[in-house]
Design brief:
The chain is α+β, with helices and mostly antiparallel strands. About 40% of the residues lie in helices and about 15% in strands. It is built from seven helices and eight strands. The protein has helices at about 1-30, 120-130, 140-150, 155-160, 190-225, 230-245, 265-270; strands spanning about 45-50, 55-60, 65, 75, 80-85, 95-100, 110-115, 130-135. The chain has a four-stranded antiparallel sheet, with no helix packed on it. Strands 7-6-5-8 form a four-stranded mixed sheet, with helices on one face. β3 (about 65) and β4 form a beta hairpin.
């Protein structure tokens, strides 16, 4: 029974194709070629979701169509200015396709959930049609983007046009994704690294302070005006006074100042 039904459907399909081909030939003959029928290239077709369900989208010479499901989907390629691929990431199985028209007031068209395996073939097809395409990892807020462009088209052109969609571009963040959360990760060192860096900084500070104290002492000695002979004389005098102390509690005699030179220093001065 099933084989009979399948055979009947196949014969009906063949009759419909024959009738439609005769209709095409008659129309082209009557219009002398002014009306041309586009034939889909099935080999270039790819699966996608233009509306509610997954369908086979087939390119033609002038269009991208699906007329086997309702609502029908028809994109005229001459009206397209740019195609943008969204969610192009290696770990994802599908990507989305956005058609931006030359009439910026026209709403963009989306084809979602296209298998990632079809990406290269879709790019080759767009290249053969001389249609510019870009790609990114985010889903963009196209309603906001087109509103910004329509509010000030001259500023859009002066700022480089669609260059903000290029992966290497650092364009204005006004065209960010609509639901893309900001990353909470902020690279920073661990607490142990911060503490060790603080300890190193404090030790370096203490060392620099001690060094400055030593330099101040050396500077004060140089400013006192004493030469090496006078310093040696004072050290020898201090040793003699220490040996002449009778009791441990006796205070050490304070070294004499520069006002009274020793006989030894006087002799050296002569």
């Amino acid at each position: 029974m099933d084989a009979c039904v399948w055979e009947a459907e196949r014969e009906l399909r063949q009759r419909l194709k024959s009738v439609f081909k005769n209709f095409i030939d008659k129309v082209e003959g009557i219009t002398h070629g002014q009306v041309e029928f586009d034939v889909p290239f099935r080999d270039l077709g790819f699966m996608g979701v233009p509306s509610r369900s997954t369908v086979l989208l087939q390119p033609t010479t002038h269009c991208l169509v699906n007329i086997t499901e309702q609502p029908t989907f028809i994109i005229t390629l001459d009206e397209v200015e740019l195609v943008h691929f969204e969610r192009v990431q290696f770990h994802l199985k599908n990507f989305d396709m956005v058609f931006v028209f030359k009439d910026y007031k026209r709403k963009v068209e989306h084809v979602n959930a296209i298998p990632m395996t079809s990406l290269d073939s879709v790019k080759d097809w767009l290249n053969s049609c001389d249609i510019k395409y870009t790609e990114g990892i985010q889903s963009l807020n196209w309603a906001k983007i087109m509103k910004t462009i329509n509010d000030d088209p001259e500023a859009f052109i002066d700022n480089g046009g669609w260059s903000f969609l290029d992966p290497d571009s650092s364009g204005d963040e006004a065209h960010d994704s609509e639901d893309e959360p900001e990353s909470e990760y902020a690279p920073s060192g661990s607490e142990e690294e911060e503490e060790s860096s603080q300890e190193e900084y404090s030790s370096e500070t203490e060392t620099s302070e001690e060094g400055s104290d030593i330099e101040e002492d050396m500077g004060s000695e140089e400013e006192s005006g004493k030469d090496w002979s006078e310093l040696e004389e004072e050290a020898a005098r201090a040793d003699r006074e220490k040996g002449m102390e009778e009791t441990p509690t006796k205070k050490r005699k304070k070294p004499t100042s520069n006002k009274h030179d020793s006989p030894r220093s006087k002799k050296r001065k002569h």
